[in-house]
Design goal:
This protein is α/β, with parallel strands linked by helices. 59% of the residues lie in helices and 9% in strands. It has 19 helices and 8 strands. Helix 3 packs antiparallel against helix 4. It is elongated and about 95 Å long.
Length: 443
């Protein structure tokens, strides 16, 4: 997969978020820092990175969590949306009859991409003709001719002719009635007057529906300036980024082009003619983040993370193990809306609220408890009985809360523990819960 290391680090961020017991400001800041680091390593422009992180942070803090979602899911959705926005708009080659002109500097991959595109479109049932209009390189015609033979697509060319526009004029006539005509043009070392004139002349005889810039992704962020310059000169309406397979700077190229008006339509991912992929920002980000699509991810989060944890917690509680940690986990799961909610709400513990859990209230309570529990030692968390006045004073100071809040947490714990005890003594209830746990496990 392209941008593998960016993908790995983004997946690590998601995993960390999913696995954290609670999302607080500190965690959010750390996650954002991880994202920043990953994007900078992929060569994304520092200003774009800062803009993105500010947006993620503000949205995570200010936006109301949509009904049915948890805070974690909401944050993942925000990250996903902002990364998608970073890559700009999306476009595709529509079905129908088209003329496509490929432009770009030397060695960017125009000729190879002309072949890839011809193969891609003819595989989808379109009749395609290739026109060799690179009049600059002596071997250009032969290169395209060879590619055409490989993919069984006819190539029109006139070796020796110096006038690109005339070749194109006759080539288009030759391929009249074809669905798609693809024009491969000359390059230069830089975008100079002569090249602009030549492309303009070709464009004026061909009136191409797609004027696509072919750009080597390994130039990184500079891809943005190049796309803008070509847009200015010949009004491009699409970009194909090549060589994303070998480039560590692909993130820079993609985001920089995303910032211009021309959308990336395809990416080249290898030297072979089948190494061409359609590019769609949201699908691309989904893949980078390791999810088929957002819905699938949200489902997976609910199922694999929460369910597994829920089951584990439930089993521990069933075995009589009920410390502050279990209480916290149980409350956290009740705050989430997940498939196990019904079962969990059968569990005693948050005894008085077991019918109607208000997720928002619960999140607030959890945040307070989290701060307090952070100031406790492992010993205290595992054996809350030992927490007497002097410890309460210390914990309250450490957490920056009042002593009565620590007492409130302990009171809640004692209530829950008593309820759990009573519950475990009730054989019928116990059997019912075990059965449900088993069914959930089997599904
Ligand atoms: P042009 O001068 O713009 O027509 O560029 P070419 O099509 O001749 O390509 C220049 C070089 O880049 C060739 O060696 C191609 O095999 C290579 N190339 C093109 N696209 C890709 C790609 O997506 N990945 C890799 N690894 N190499 C590519
Ligand atoms: Mg070429």
């Amino acid at each position: 997969m392209v941008l593998e290391s960016l993908s790995n680090s983004l997946r690590a961020v998601i995993k960390r978020l999913a696995g954290s017991p609670n999302v607080d400001e500190k965690l959010l800041k750390e996650l954002i820092r991880d994202i920043q680091r990953s994007l900078l390593q992929a060569d994304v422009n520092v200003n774009l990175v800062l803009e993105l992180s500010k947006k993620v942070e503000n949205r995570a803090k200010e936006e109301k969590i949509p009904p049915g979602a948890t805070l974690k899911e909401h944050i993942i959705k925000i990250i996903y949306e902002e990364l998608t926005a970073l890559l700009g708009s999306s476009a595709e080659i529509k079905k129908g009859k088209h003329t496509i002109m490929l432009v770009g500097l030397y060695g960017q991959g125009k000729t190879t991409t002309a072949g890839k595109l011809a193969r891609y479109l003819s595989k989808r049932g379109m009749s395609v003709g290739l026109i060799a209009a690179d009049v600059h390189r002596p071997a250009a015609y032969d290169q395209l001719k060879q590619i055409g033979e490989q993919i069984k697509v006819p190539v029109y060319g006139e070796p020796g002719e110096r006038e690109a526009a005339s070749i194109v004029e006759r080539g288009l006539k030759q391929f009249e009635g074809f669905d798609v005509k693809i024009i491969d043009t000359s390059g230069r070392h830089s975008l100079e007057r002569e090249l602009i004139e030549e492309i303009k002349a070709v464009a004026s005889v061909a009136s191409p529906d797609y004027r696509i810039l072919v750009l080597d992704a390994s130039i990184g962020q500079q891809a943005g300036a190049q796309a803008a310059a070509f847009h200015e000169a010949v009004n491009i309406n699409g970009v194909i980024l090549t060589k994303l397979d070998g480039s560590a700077k692909g993130g820079g190229a993609l985001s920089a082009v995303g910032h211009t008006k021309a959308p990336v339509i395809f990416i080249g991912t290898g030297e072979h003619l089948e190494d061409l992929e359609t590019f769609n920002p949201s699908r691309f980000v989904s893949r980078l983040m390791g999810m088929g699509d957002l819905t699938a991810l949200l489902e997976r989060m609910r199922e694999s993370i929460d369910e597994k944890k829920a089951e584990e917690t439930a089993r521990k509680i069933m075995s009589g193990h009920f410390t502050l940690r279990e209480m916290y986990e149980q409350m956290e799961m009740l705050a989430d809306v997940g498939p196990l909610k019904k079962i969990l709400s059968m569990l005693p513990g948050v005894a008085t609220t077991k019918q109607n859990v208000d997720p928002e209230e619960m999140q607030k309570k959890l945040a307070r408890f989290h701060v307090i529990m952070d100031s406790m030692t492992d010993e205290e968390l595992d054996n809350p009985k030992i927490i007497k006045s002097s410890r309460i004073l210390r914990i309250a100071r450490g957490a920056g809360v009042e002593q009565k809040e620590v007492r409130e947490l302990l009171r809640q714990y004692n209530l829950s523990r008593r309820a759990v005890k009573g519950f475990l003594g009730n054989r019928q209830l116990r059997r019912q819960l075990l059965k449900q746990l088993k069914e959930t496990h089997e599904n």
